[in-house]
Design goal:
mainly alpha, Tetracycline Repressor, domain 2, 0% strand
Length: 197
């Protein structure tokens, strides 16, 4: 039995997500997005009256929801929270490598190219990073990190992770990413063994 095509709105979000990962917000035009989504122009404005910007915000929100859901699933698996953190950090590198170093994190890509005029885009990316820091802080507390220290450590993890992903993408090699992951996990483990007040 043939598989039903995804609804138009989801196809548009998927096309924008792919574009954000590969080329960023300004690297793709509406005509290309519509072609990839197999959607007429009028349908875009039916679902996203704000056009490309509103579609990009929806794609960013969808990416963040996906990342958050994957972190929640990892938290619920058997093993330690530290194992969950290791798995989450290494999955991104594996995904990047499988894509031929073409698909980076869309949050970082959009953040780097946004301007002060891109208020809705910047707000969506800021919300996304804040949610990831909050979820990671929960994972760290679950791992045994002091609750007062966890938000700062979560911010360090996100910052190092995003920077390492960018380095891996431009180098076409995951060596810096792997070294960053191991160092981050060592820092977290040290915090678990010697919790700071």
């Amino acid at each position: 039995m043939p598989q039903e095509p995804a609804p138009t709105r989801e196809r548009l979000i998927a096309a924008m997500t792919d574009a954000l990962q590969r080329r960023g917000l300004h690297g793709v035009g509406l005509a290309e997005l519509l072609q990839v989504a197999q959607a007429p122009k009028g349908v875009l404005y039916h679902h996203f009256p704000g056009g490309k910007t509103e579609l990009a915000v929806a794609a960013i929100d969808a990416v963040v929801a996906h990342i958050d859901a994957s972190l929640q699933r990892l938290q619920q698996r058997p093993g330690t929270a530290l194992d969950a953190l290791r798995q989450w950090l290494t999955q991104a590198g594996q995904h990047l490598q499988r894509s031929g170093f073409e698909r980076g994190c869309p949050l970082a890509t959009v953040a780097l190219e946004s301007t002060p005029q891109d208020e809705a885009i910047r707000a969506a990316v800021a919300r996304g990073f804040a949610l990831l820091r909050e979820r990671l802080a929960q994972v760290l507390v679950q791992a045994g990190v002091n609750a007062a220290r966890a938000p700062g450590l979560a911010a360090l993890v996100v910052s190092a992770y995003e920077g390492a992903l960018m380095q891996a993408r431009v180098a076409g090699d995951t060596q810096a990413l792997r070294a960053t992951v191991e160092t981050l996990l060592a820092v977290v483990a040290q915090d678990i063994e010697s919790p700071k007040p």
